[in-house]
Specification:
Layout lengths: L1 H23 L3 E6 L2 E6 L12 E6 L8 E7 L10 E14 L4 E5 L22 E3 L3 E2 L13 E2 L8 E4 L3 H9 L7 E5 L9 E4 L11 E7 L2 E5 L12 E4 L8 E2 L46 E5 L9 E6 L4 E7 L6 E9 L5 E7 L4
Antiparallel strand pairs: 1-13, 2-4, 3-4, 3-12, 4-11, 5-10, 5-12, 5-13, 6-9, 6-11, 7-8, 14-15, 14-16, 17-18, 18-19, 20-21
Length: 360
């Protein structure tokens, strides 16, 4: 009995890993740290801060000369294959200091520079007046950007991550045409309001986890398999290439079914099905052993992205029906972006970690 319990636990962990791989098979998530950033200042129009460990946005008060400050950020998307479909894109910034008011994120429409230097600018740096100091000016001082914001926020929480989701359209446009990827400008929601200055950590911050990071989930096509019996497991001999990674009706991402014939009991014969010792002479779970008596467990797992906050969820999986149920959304004090496998401890509970935040 003890050995069977241990075997069941091992199978649970294996099935959980297998299930996550099935979920993620069609999609890839990459974490991209900003490859260049800079800050520009209205009252120091030839000042720059390409080397600094901080980015500045919003407007200072009267004591600071009512300076309008804007941040420029760029992310190299060359690791994403051309022609890929972007499913999600989320920007995470770490807020060091905040005054009242929110920020807005705008697509830049002109290229700009960032050297590893501070004010006065080095040749090629962006300033309030110049996209590339000293020879190439912005069309409009303060930067050339789309006036309609891609995203905007309310008041920021000091010392906490600023999570800006739903950037899929911008990233998709840059993957489709990399020559237009000039990145984003982060500015105060209303530059006319003083005492709205913010400080955000830059790519040069010594702690990597505090640097600006873009999480992108994409697909570059996926092979899917016919599932004639509807049990969630496909026939490896009958495949189709889905360029958008979306399986058509009747197809699945899995290819491990050993009986996909609905007229011959296929719906109850698939990997990890219950293969009870009932003397029916059928290898229900496709493991090559008939009636081995292993009862399928209930499974729990996580996804790195998705959910209400687009930073991961805990889900349950019912192997008998191949159905998933969301149990919990991440996004608060319990951390964000679940990472690694769940571990079942001796108390029967499952434990795991998040990529950012706390233990859950």
């Amino acid at each position: 009995m003890k050995n069977l319990h241990l075997l069941t636990r091992i199978i649970l962990i294996f099935i959980f890993t297998f299930s996550l791989l099935t979920l993620a098979k069609a999609q890839v998530t990459v974490k991209i740290i900003s490859d260049k950033d800079n800050s520009i200042y209205s009252t120091n129009p030839e000042g720059s801060n390409g080397l600094g460990g901080e980015l500045h946005s919003g407007r200072l008060g009267y004591e600071g000369g009512l300076t309008i400050r804007r941040s420029l950020l760029h992310f190299d998307l060359s690791s994403i294959p051309a022609g890929s479909t972007i499913y999600s894109a989320t920007l995470i910034l770490q807020v060091r200091r905040n005054k009242d008011g929110g920020v807005s994120l705008h697509k830049l429409i002109a290229n700009w520079g960032s050297s590893d230097d501070v004010s006065p600018p080095a040749e090629g740096d962006a300033t309030w007046n110049h996209a590339f100091f000293p020879n190439t000016k912005w069309t409009t001082p303060g930067g050339d950007f789309e006036t309609t914001a891609t995203a905007s926020t309310g008041n920021l929480e000091e010392g906490a991550p600023l999570i800006i989701p739903n950037l899929t359209a911008d990233v998709q446009s840059w993957v489709n045409n990399s020559s237009t990827n000039f990145g984003w400008m982060l500015k105060g929601t209303d530059d006319n309001i003083p005492y709205t200055a913010k400080i955000i950590y830059s790519r040069n911050h010594p702690v990597e986890n505090l640097r600006p990071v873009l999480h992108v989930t994409y697909c570059n096509g996926s092979v899917v398999y016919i599932d004639a019996d509807g049990d969630g497991y496909g026939d490896a001999a009958k495949s189709y290439f889905a360029p958008d990674c979306i399986a058509p009706d009747g197809y699945v991402y899995d290819s491990t079914d050993c009986n996909d014939n609905p007229a011959n009991g296929g719906a109850i014969i698939h990997p990890w099905a219950c293969d009870a010792s009932n003397g029916d002479g059928v290898d229900n779970n496709c493991d090559g052993v008939i009636d081995n008596g292993i009862v399928e467990p209930k499974l729990y797992g996580t996804t790195h992205d998705g959910g209400s906050n687009n930073v991961g969820v805990i889900f349950s999986f019912n192997p008998s029906s191949s159905t998933y149920t969301k149990v919990k959304d991440f996004g608060g004090e319990d951390g964000i972006y679940p990472y690694g496998s769940l571990i079942q401890a001796s108390d029967g509970k499952l434990y795991g970690t998040t990529n950012e935040g706390e233990l859950y």
